[in-house]
C-alpha cells in the first residue's frame, strides 16, 4: 500500500503546492526589487488606471500601483501567517506533548483549556481579541496564533499517547533519560509527520483569517497594504475598476490553494491509512 | 442511553464556564477601562471623579467578585446595557439572531445539496477523471476566501445588470420570496467552502465503507450495485458526516460575521462589528458570548444526534 515517495499519490500534489508557496515567498522577499513602483506613492493623474504595461494590475483610487501593493502585501500576509502558525505550533505542540506525556491533572487542565478556546468560532475569537487588544501587527499574530493553538495541542497529544507506551520510549526512560530528553529525542521525531500536515493546513487558515480581519478593518491597517485591506478599499470602486478587487482576492486564493495542496499531499504521503 | 446523555451534558458545563471566564477577562483586560470608554477620551475628569464613576459601575471591587456578579446577572438574562444606546443588550442581540441563523441554515443546506451527489459520484468512480476533477474543485472551494467570493458575486451582479441591487433585507415571514432573493448570494458565498469540506468527507467516508466486508457480502449475494451504494454503504458512510457538520458550525458562525458585513445584512455579525467600531463593549461581550454558547450547544446537539443514530456510541 505504502509506495515510495514518487509513487505516492500525494507527491505531485505536495510538489505543486510547494512550488506555489515557494514562488510567493520569493516574490514577497524580492518585493523591493520586483515591484514596478513605490506601493505608497499616490499619483493623482493616474487614478483607477486599467492594467497596462506600466501598471500590470492597474492602479487604485489613489493612483497607487496595484501590483506593487500586492507584492508588499504578500510580505505582511505571509509574515503574519508564518509567525502566527509558529506561535500556534510552539504553544499547542508543547502543551499537547506535556499533556500527553504527563497525563493526570496536567493533561486534564491543559486540554480543557484547549476545549474552551475551541468553543469559539475562529474568526470571531480573533476579532474579539483584536477589538480589545488593538490593531498592531503583533496582536494580529498573537490573536491568530491563539485561535489555532488547540488543533496543534490535540494532534501532538494524540501522537504522544500513541508512542508513549512503546518499548523504545520506555527503554529510554528506564536507561535514565530525563523526561525532557525522552520527549525531544524519542517522542518528537515520531509526531513530526502529523504536526507537519497540521502546520501546512494551519498556514492556509492563517492567511484566510488575516485577510478576513484586515478586510473588516481589524487587521493590518491602511496605508500598509495587505490583501484583505486592499480588497476592502476596492469595494467602493470595484464597479468602475474591477481589477482592484479581483487581484488581491486572487492572490489570497492562489497561495491558500498552495498551502492546501501541500497539506493534502503531505497527508496522503505521510499517512498510509488514508491511501484510499 | 440516559447515562451517555448525562455524561455528555456534564462535559459541556466546564466548557461553558471557561467560555464565560474568557469573555469576562477579555473585556476586563482592556488597556483603558470601561469608565474611560464610557465617558470618551475628550472629557477631562479628575482622578477623584473617575474613581467615583468606577465605584458606581462596580469596577472598584476585586475581579473575582465582579465576575460572580456578572455571571449572576447573565443567568437572569441581564447582559448589561449598551454604552451607545443605553438599551439592554440581550433583546437587541436576539432580535438579530434570526438573520444570522437563516444565513447559516441556508448555507448549510446548500453545501449539503452540492456535496452529497458530487462526493458520492467521486467515490463510486474512484481514480477516474471525475474523481480527479472533484478533488481539484474541492481544493479550489477550500481556497477561495468567502468574502472575496461574495465581493465577486456582487461585482458580477452589477455587470450583468447595472441597476440590479441585492435589495434590502426583508424578514422571511414578511415576504418569503424577496427574503430568499436577498439571502441567495450570501448563502452561496458562505456555502461553497463548506460544500468542498463535505464533498471531500463524503468521498473518503464512502470509500472507507465500500472496503468493508458487509459491502462485499452484499455484492456477493447479488445485490445490485446501486442498492449496495445507497442502502448498504451510503447510510453508514453518512453517519460520521453529522460530526463534521457540528465541527463546521464554527466556520458558519464566524463566516456569517464577515458575510453580513459584505451584504449589509442586519444580523448578529454586523451588530458586533458596529459595536467594535463604536467601542460598545457590553454589546461585543454579549454577541461573542451568545455565539460561543450557540456553538457549544450545537456540538452538544450533534453528539446527542450521533448517539441516537449510531448505537455503538451509547454502548461503547
Task: Describe the protein's architecture and organization.
The complex is a heterodimer of chains A (276) and B (316). Chain A is an all-alpha fold and 276 residues long. Chain A has one domain (2-30, 65-275): MetI-like (MetI-like fold, Orthogonal Bundle). Chain A is 71% helix and 0% strand. Chain A has helices at residues 10-29, 31-34, 66-102, 104-118, 122-133, 137-147, 149-164, 167-174, 179-215, 227-234, 243-270. Chain A is elongated and about 75 Å long. Chain A starts with 9 loop residues before the first helix and ends in a 6-residue tail after the last helix. Residues 1-7 of chain A have low confidence and may be disordered. Chain B has 316 residues and is mainly alpha-helical. Chain B is built from 14 helices and no strands. Chain B has helices at 2-28, 34-39, 47-56, 63-75, 89-124, 129-143, 146-160, 176-210, 213-220, 225-238, 241-263, 268-277, 281-309, 311-315. In chain B, helix 6 (129-143) crosses helix 8. At the A-B interface, helix 4, helix 5, helix 9 and helix 11 of A face helix 1, helix 6, helix 7, helix 8 and helix 11 of B.
